[in-house]
């Protein structure tokens, strides 16, 4: 965000807090990608529509401006989707999400948004013997469905040709992936929305919300009354009684090295590919045009599942862990300074897929639960939410992520300690496997609990 805001056209004009009572056709809560894409597609479909967007921070101030910038579709999850929704629905979801990856590049091109969109694909790599073959079931499912080109298996030598790390083994390559500078995309979207007449109010937390109709969003010093409302509040959804059963929140943390293009050249990682390993507790890494590595990992701590506290934005414990894991993967980066570290909350859904719908009032529409994979899919989410708000029955509103009820998590007071325990077990199991040892039967049992309970989370 710091880098993006240094570009005058991305910093843009200020959008002061709401200080009056307004009416609008649609009020959107949340200025992340989901809220902004919703506004974008509402204006695409009906340029005359009056849209007000309320954001408690600045647009992109949440995860949308601070993520790893991986832009993916959903092919990696096709097996689970086919089991849950059937082959036809699973294919439709993956094709729609794939179109969004391309469309984000096209949006940047069309509107002159320099978000560093780099469609170089994604390498999924085993960084320990235990991770080898984890892509196997997905490859088989893709073959069964006749779309085997989407994920291609790679030998160790082929992996090395993309990026050389002493811990990388075999892998698989996802053609469809891209990367962006996340805050540049968020701020570029904000610029386009302002050009199209969307009224944006930043530093404007919504304190009270009544569905109506009309829906009324009350802030500290004003209110918006609108026929339709879109709730695109991401992880803050756990503060809403209606969504709490369906969302769990965990953290994700990133460290960014100083520019070291010569070190990247030494390991051969000059193609701009996004890389993730197959630890259930995640390692995701990418380069930047000036030769940095951004390295991310997951984190979880007591009480976090209940509210979004400041530890999500910065937690030295998880940042130190990210640095250790970065150096394990790339020993030649040990003497490259770490220039920044940050984190953010992840809105986890039980199926690993976001869910969309309309409240019983008929005029309030929501899209949440991107589970750490929202950069690409929030573009699809914006189209779904625009269709819902316009009451259009179309291909977007018929998708399985709209028609199906989201899974429920166990209630508190079980949920937060349970999540902490399970996440800790998953991390310990992953760390033990990285070191070539077993984490023990108890840790293994706890780590696999979510799958046993039917969630699409954690190791098999
Ligand atoms: C560190 C990190 C790395 C990630 N890496 C990736 C990645 O590489 N690829 C990927 O696909 N995904 C990644 N993600 C996830 C991705 O960032 C999200 O899925 C995506 O940004 C979701 O967008 P959103 O608009 O739904 O939510 P958000 O970006 O969370 O936006 C919701 C907005 O609502 C606002 N808000 C909430 N409550 C209120 C209220 N009451 N009033 C007003 N405003 C409110 C918040 O301030 C926030 O700006 C990552 C996330 C993090 C934290």
Describe, in plain words, how this protein is organized in 3D:
The protein has 460 residues and is α/β, with parallel strands linked by helices. Helix content is 33%, strand content 21%. Strands 1, 2, 8, 9, 10, 11, 17 and 18 form an 8-stranded mixed sheet that branches. Bound molecules: flavin-adenine dinucleotide. The site of flavin-adenine dinucleotide has 41 residues, from α3, β12 and β16.
Q: How would you describe this structure in keywords?
A:
18 strands; alpha/beta; single chain; binds flavin-adenine dinucleotide; about 450 residues; 8-stranded mixed beta sheet
The residue ranges in which pLDDT falls below 50 over 5 or more consecutive positions are: none
Beta-strand percent range: 15-25%
Instruction: Look at the helices and sheets and give the structural class.
Output: alpha/beta
Distance between the termini: 36 Å
Mean pLDDT: 95
Give me the secondary-structure topology:
Elements: H1 2-5, H2 8-11, E1 21-29, H3 33-45, E2 51-54, E3 70-71, H4 78-85, H5 87-111, E4 122-125, H6 136-144, E5 151-154, H7 156-162, E6 171-174, E7 178-179, H8 182-195, E8 199-201, E9 206-210, E10 215-219, E11 223-231, E12 248-257, H9 261-267, E13 274-277, E14 283-287, E15 293-299, H10 316-329, E16 338-348, E17 355-358, E18 364-368, H11 377-389, H12 400-403, H13 415-434, H14 441-447, H15 449-452
Parallel strand pairs: 1-2, 1-11, 2-8, 4-13, 11-18
Antiparallel strand pairs: 3-7, 4-6, 5-6, 9-10, 10-11, 12-15, 12-16, 13-14, 14-15, 17-18
Helix pairs in contact: 3-8, 3-11, 4-5, 13-14
The structure holds flavin-adenine dinucleotide.
The site of flavin-adenine dinucleotide has 41 residues, from helix 3, strand 12 and strand 16.
């Amino acid at each position: 965000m710091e880098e993006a805001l240094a570009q005058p056209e991305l910093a843009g004009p200020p959008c002061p807090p709401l200080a009056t009572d307004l009416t609008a056709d649609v009020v959107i809560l949340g200025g992340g990608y989901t809220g902004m894409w919703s506004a974008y597609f509402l204006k695409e479909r009906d340029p005359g529509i009056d849209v007000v967007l309320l954001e408690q921070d600045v647009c992109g101030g949440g995860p949308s401006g601070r993520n790893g910038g991986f832009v993916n579709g959903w092919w990696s999850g096709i097996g689970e989707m086919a089991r849950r929704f059937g082959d036809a629905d699973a294919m439709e979801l993956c094709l729609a999400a794939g179109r969004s990856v391309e469309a984000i590049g096209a949006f940047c091109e069309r509107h002159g948004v320099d978000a560093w969109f780099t469609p170089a694909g994604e390498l999924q790599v085993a960084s320990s013997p235990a991770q080898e073959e984890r892509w196997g079931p997905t490859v088989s499912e893709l073959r069964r469905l006749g779309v085997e080109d989407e994920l291609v298996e790679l030998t160790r030598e082929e992996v090395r040709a993309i990026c050389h790390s002493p811990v990388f083994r075999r892998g698989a390559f996802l053609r469809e992936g891209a990367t962006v500078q996340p805050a540049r995309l968020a701020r570029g979207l904000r610029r386009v929305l302002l050009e199209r007449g969307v009224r944006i109010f930043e530093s404007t937390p919504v304190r009270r919300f009544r569905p109506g109709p009309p829906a009324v969003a009350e802030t500290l010093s004003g209110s918006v009354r609108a026929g339709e409302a879109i709730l695109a509040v991401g992880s803050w959804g756990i503060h809403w009684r209606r969504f709490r059963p369906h969302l769990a929140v965990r953290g994700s943390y990133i460290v960014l090295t100083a520019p070291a293009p010569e070190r990247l050249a030494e390991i051969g990682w000059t193609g701009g590919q996004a890389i993730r390993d197959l630890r259930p507790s995640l390692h995701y890494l990418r380069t930047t045009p000036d030769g940095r590595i951004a390295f991310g990992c997951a984190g979880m701590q007591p009480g976090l599942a209940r509210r979004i506290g400041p530890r999500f934005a910065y937690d030295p414990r998880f940042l130190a862990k990210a640095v250790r894991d970065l150096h394990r993967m790339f020993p030649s980066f040990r003497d490259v300074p770490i220039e920044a570290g940050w984190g953010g909350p992840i809105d986890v859904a039980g199926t690993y897929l976001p869910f969309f719908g309309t409240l019983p009032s008929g005029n309030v529409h929501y899209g949440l639960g991107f589970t750490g994979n929202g950069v690409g899919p929030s573009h699809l989410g914006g189209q779904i939410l625009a269709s819902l708000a316009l009451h259009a029955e179309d291909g977007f509103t018929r998708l399985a992520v709209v028609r199906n009820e989201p899974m429920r998590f166990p209630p508190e007071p079980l949920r937060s300690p349970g999540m902490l325990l399970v996440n800790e077990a998953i991390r310990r199991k992953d760390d033990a496997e990285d070191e070539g040892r077993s984490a023990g039967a108890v840790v293994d049992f706890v780590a696999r609990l979510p799958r046993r309970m039917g969630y699409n989370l954690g190791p098999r």
